[in-house]
Amino acid sequence: MCSVGSNISVGNSEITMKKTKKQIQKITFTGLFINLALSVLKCSVGHLYKSQALFADGIHSLSDMATDLIIIIGAKFWEQPADDCHPYGHARIETLVTIIIGATLAGTALFIGWEAVISFSNSQDKNPGWAVFIVALISIIVKESLYHWTISKGKKLKSSALISNAWHHRSDALSSIPVAVAVIGGFLFPALRYLDQIAAFLISAMLLKAAWSIARPGILEICEASAGAETEKFLKELAAQIPEIKDIHAIRTRRLGGSVLADLHLLVDPNISVEAGHKIGGKFKKLVLDSDNNIVDVLVHVEPYARR
């Protein structure tokens, strides 16, 4: 039996995790209240002025609220330090949250698309009106501003969930554009009775694309995909800075939340002592961890170099 409450990493790292959790929750709470206000506004005006596109956009804002709540709750767990049960920490919880955000967005997109398709026969002869346009414009400005603020904080905190939620905010801003365009188009071309439904269908397609972009990195991480060729190239470049390292191979990398784990083999002079080889490996590991490349741990195996 492993002890869940037994922390392996304590001290400054644990304090940093607590601060990060509070910042993530504070940022997400702000987004939640904004999403609540926008959802009520868009759904109310969309229903009052019979704009299916704006009402669908309001449902999208409602789904944003759901993901905000998931992050607020999830941050409590994924920012916990490593313990006996989870020696690599709890960052995969953040990955799961990211995938859930993408899945929620995809479900919302399918719902909006289906509603748009089945309502083509119920299109309104009357243009929804400028009130719908103004609300859509407010949504675009507010959600795009929220996107820039959230993604900057997400990158600073190296939180994949915050970055994913930022894109959720941007997708909400983008989904309001067809609503505004539909109103203008309705005034310019009154004979086009289906513009509102077409706008709703476009919103659905945009959200599906955004959902895949959000969920894909998390899915790859769960499937243990590598951190990419750039990370491998970076490790080789660092190894080249240490003359005692003759070669480097068997590089394997994987992502853990917003971080990267690596293991590799360093080839050194076969005539040196075990202690000397250990020091070379430690020197390389320090060089990697001190670098600004999101690599939080590297397992180094030192082996003798043999000329071919």
Lateral arrangement of strands in the main beta sheet:
1-2-3
The first-to-last residue Cα distance is 48 Å
- Annotated CATH topology of the largest domain: Alpha-lytic protease prodomain-like
Oligomeric organization of the protein chains: single chain
- Rg of Cα set: 25 Å
Name of the CATH superfamily of the largest domain: Cation efflux protein transmembrane domain
Structural features, described:
- The chain has 308 residues and is mainly alpha-helical.
- The protein has two domains: 12-222, Cation efflux protein transmembrane domain (Alpha-lytic protease prodomain-like); 229-304, Alpha-Beta Plaits.
- It contains eight helices and three strands; from the N terminus they run αααααααββαβ.
- Strand 1 and strand 2 (259-268) form a beta hairpin.
- Helix 1 (12-48) packs antiparallel against helix 4 (130-157), helix 2 runs antiparallel to helix 3 and helix 3 packs antiparallel against helix 6.
- The chain is elongated, with a radius of gyration of 25 Å.
Describe the secondary-structure layout.
Blueprint: H1 12-48, H2 52-78, H3 91-118, H4 130-157, H5 160-188, H6 195-222, H7 229-239, E1 247-256, E2 259-268, H8 274-290, E3 295-304
Parallel strand pairs: 2-3
Antiparallel strand pairs: 1-2
Helix pairs in contact: 1-2, 1-4, 2-3, 2-5, 2-6, 3-5, 3-6, 4-5, 5-6
Q: Can you describe this structure in just a few lines?
A:
The protein has 308 residues and is mainly α. It contains 8 helices and 3 strands.
